[in-house]
Amino acid sequence: RYKAVIFDLDGVITDTARYHYLAWKRLAASQGVHFDEAFNEHLKGIDRMGSLDLILASAPRAYTPEEKLALADSKNAHYVELISTMSPADLLPGAVEALDACRAAGLKVGLASVSKNAFAVLDMLGIAGKFDYVVDAARIARGKPDPEIFLKAASELGVSPADCLGVEDAVAGVASIKSAGMTALGIGDPAVLAQADRVIAGLDHFALADY
Ligand code: B16
Ligand code: MG
């Protein structure tokens, strides 16, 4: 029924959310901003500057664009340090099997992550070769929930959005898939990902024939 499956990375294929959380928490603390797991949920799927803006919204002072860039760079340097020891052992259960199942079914396989570290993470996980197309987040103007990133993946794969299944763990990501006109498979809690067409707990429950 589909011609392509477009996967998100963080939270779907590997659990980098924990490392983003630790890096943002340290950054927030350095600026006197309270930061916890609940707030971190709102940042899932949101790009780096967008996440920083959400955190600094509760800071005691205003920031110049230059200061913001420096803070984003410092968060990223910490994040890159945290993920530097990632390996294929950090693949979430069922991830490789899901990618291979799509390929075996003759579908195109794409990656739509807003992370500028996505190429490096794919290399560390040893799965870069499993995608027909990986969106370069640096060339995307509008992050999730805007549909741009999923539409870009579909067009580069040569498939119309209606023939794509998008796979996402974040509320903003599911919104991006739906506004792109695709079917959304959520990964996580159905109560949280209410906009998804189907929700499964993880890729270890991925069954292409069901969607
Ligand atoms: P970076 P995804 C997103 O990746 C993460 O969910 C989000 O927490 C992060 O802020 C964003 O990537 C940007 O990452 O700072 O590495 O560019 O879920 O779209 O794969
Ligand atoms: Mg994600």
Automatic annotation (TrEMBL):
Residue positions binding substrate: 8-10, 24, 43-48, 51, 75, 113-117, 144
Database matches in InterPro entries: B-phosphoglucomutase_hydrolase (IPR010976), Beta-PGM (IPR010972), Beta-PGM-like (IPR051600), HAD-like_sf (IPR036412), HAD-SF_hydro_IA (IPR006439), HAD_sf (IPR023214), PGP-like_dom2 (IPR023198)
Keyword Methyltransferase: no
Cofactor descriptive note: Binds 2 magnesium ions per subunit.
The UniProt record lists the keyword Hydrolase: no
GO BP annotations, alphabetical order: carbohydrate metabolic process
Site annotation Important for catalytic activity and assists the phosphoryl transfer reaction to Asp8 by balancing charge and orienting the reacting groups: residues: 113, 144
GO molecular function, one term: magnesium ion binding
Keyword annotations: Carbohydrate metabolism, Isomerase, Magnesium, Metal-binding, Phosphoprotein
One Pfam family in the UniProt entry: Hydrolase
Catalysed reactions, as listed in the record: beta-D-glucose 1-phosphate = beta-D-glucose 6-phosphate
EC numbers for this chain: 5.4.2.6
Binding residues annotated for Mg(2+), in chain numbering: 8, 10, 168-169
Cofactor (UniProt): Mg(2+)
EC class (word): isomerase
UniProt cross-references to PANTHER family, sorted A to Z: 6-PHOSPHOGLUCONATE PHOSPHATASE (PTHR46193), HEXITOL PHOSPHATASE B (PTHR46193:SF18)
Family: Belongs to the HAD-like hydrolase superfamily. CbbY/CbbZ/Gph/YieH family.
Record protein name field: Beta-phosphoglucomutase
Organism name: Pseudoduganella namucuonensis
